[in-house]
């Protein structure tokens, strides 16, 4: 029954093609491979420590043979580990037994195989494995996809910088902007989140059953185990070192990462809804794809499905990320298992995000600006010029400017002619009146063009 059409989750069914970049990283195979990687690097680090003479320093060739084991680790190998787990009923212990068997292929180091998993608790291996998986997912999948979306929006900001747009505050006509400036707003917001990802630290610990190197100190009391652990985490695995923990790494960084992801996703939900609204107003047309059906009963429709799809999947992703942020930093006393089952869904959160990224990017690529509709909307809303006129009236100390414009415009459609007559009635210098009469809903856009072009 295990097939895309019978998959319980759409991540592995309907959307499996979109989520494929994550499958080798965040799947069960990815987790087992990461565990193999951590166990081997710990074994290598032990051999490098002069205070542990029972494990000799391995040659460069032997170290490479060890690293080749995880470099070549395949889904078939992961299945073999899972077969062992059927007997052990313990996933990390199954990794240890699989490695002992794999070491037989390297006779030079096979006799030291009892040092696999030396002084480690399972959580030493697991926390580092998840950190490696998260780091690879962010660097190899999330950042490239998010960067591409930002680049698309930046291009739109520049291309549409000079297209005036009627703003809507509270759903009502408001001071005009430009279409490009509205895209620039989103670019800036997403860039802030992207920078947070670029400098993000992924933490790991390897300090034993309750975080104090208890067993380590009994076996080798003269070894600086904290320095040894730090060397493994930073130099072997490329992570940041967590010096204080209980049995589990406290997961604060996972919560922080989840918040960054949910914030950036929320920004894109905001964008998807706005674009959806602009399509509804006719500001954007969507390119018609040959063979596509918009509605099963209404042949004329070209639905904004990509933006709806993005919104829905960002929402599912955020529900998971928010749960991670709230739950994972909490563990009863020195350890309970409630985090373990939750961590297994990390890949799902990234999977739904990836689906949403691709839907949003696809939707943005199908948009065509309908300048005629945008222009017509501006022409129908001359009352938005009440703002600049009353502001100039304030400058020249004309009494009750806001109230006078409110009486003239609130809840009413105003023509260019009516506005011109109002300006003529004001006690303003003639040259000021001339400049005010030059204002239109199309050119009352402030610095919008400049702001859009420089993003």
Automatic annotation (TrEMBL):
<comment type="function">
    <text>Catalyzes two reactions in de novo purine nucleotide biosynthesis. Catalyzes the breakdown of 5-aminoimidazole- (N-succinylocarboxamide) ribotide (SAICAR or 2-[5-amino-1-(5-phospho-beta-D-ribosyl)imidazole-4-carboxamido]succinate) to 5-aminoimidazole-4-carboxamide ribotide (AICAR or 5-amino-1-(5-phospho-beta-D-ribosyl)imidazole-4-carboxamide) and fumarate, and of adenylosuccinate (ADS or N(6)-(1,2-dicarboxyethyl)-AMP) to adenosine monophosphate (AMP) and fumarate.</text>
</comment>
<dbReference type="GO" id="GO:0016829">
    <property type="term" value="F:lyase activity"/>
</dbReference>
<dbReference type="InterPro" id="IPR013539">
    <property type="entry name" value="PurB_C"/>
</dbReference>
<keyword id="KW-0658">Purine biosynthesis</keyword>
<dbReference type="Pfam" id="PF08328">
    <property type="entry name" value="ASL_C"/>
</dbReference>
<dbReference type="InterPro" id="IPR024083">
    <property type="entry name" value="Fumarase/histidase_N"/>
</dbReference>
<comment type="pathway">
    <text>Purine metabolism; IMP biosynthesis via de novo pathway; 5-amino-1-(5-phospho-D-ribosyl)imidazole-4-carboxamide from 5-amino-1-(5-phospho-D-ribosyl)imidazole-4-carboxylate: step 2/2.</text>
</comment>
<protein>
    <recommendedName>
        <fullName>Adenylosuccinate lyase</fullName>
        <ecNumber>4.3.2.2</ecNumber>
    </recommendedName>
</protein>
<dbReference type="InterPro" id="IPR047136">
    <property type="entry name" value="PurB_bact"/>
</dbReference>
<dbReference type="Pfam" id="PF00206">
    <property type="entry name" value="Lyase_1"/>
</dbReference>
<dbReference type="InterPro" id="IPR020557">
    <property type="entry name" value="Fumarate_lyase_CS"/>
</dbReference>
<keyword id="KW-0456">Lyase</keyword>
<dbReference type="InterPro" id="IPR004769">
    <property type="entry name" value="Pur_lyase"/>
</dbReference>
<dbReference type="InterPro" id="IPR008948">
    <property type="entry name" value="L-Aspartase-like"/>
</dbReference>
<feature type="domain" description="Fumarate lyase N-terminal">
    <location>
        <begin position="13"/>
        <end position="312"/>
    </location>
</feature>
<dbReference type="InterPro" id="IPR000362">
    <property type="entry name" value="Fumarate_lyase_fam"/>
</dbReference>
<feature type="domain" description="Adenylosuccinate lyase PurB C-terminal">
    <location>
        <begin position="331"/>
        <end position="445"/>
    </location>
</feature>
<comment type="pathway">
    <text>Purine metabolism; AMP biosynthesis via de novo pathway; AMP from IMP: step 2/2.</text>
</comment>
<comment type="similarity">
    <text>Belongs to the lyase 1 family. Adenylosuccinate lyase subfamily.</text>
</comment>
<dbReference type="InterPro" id="IPR022761">
    <property type="entry name" value="Fumarate_lyase_N"/>
</dbReference>
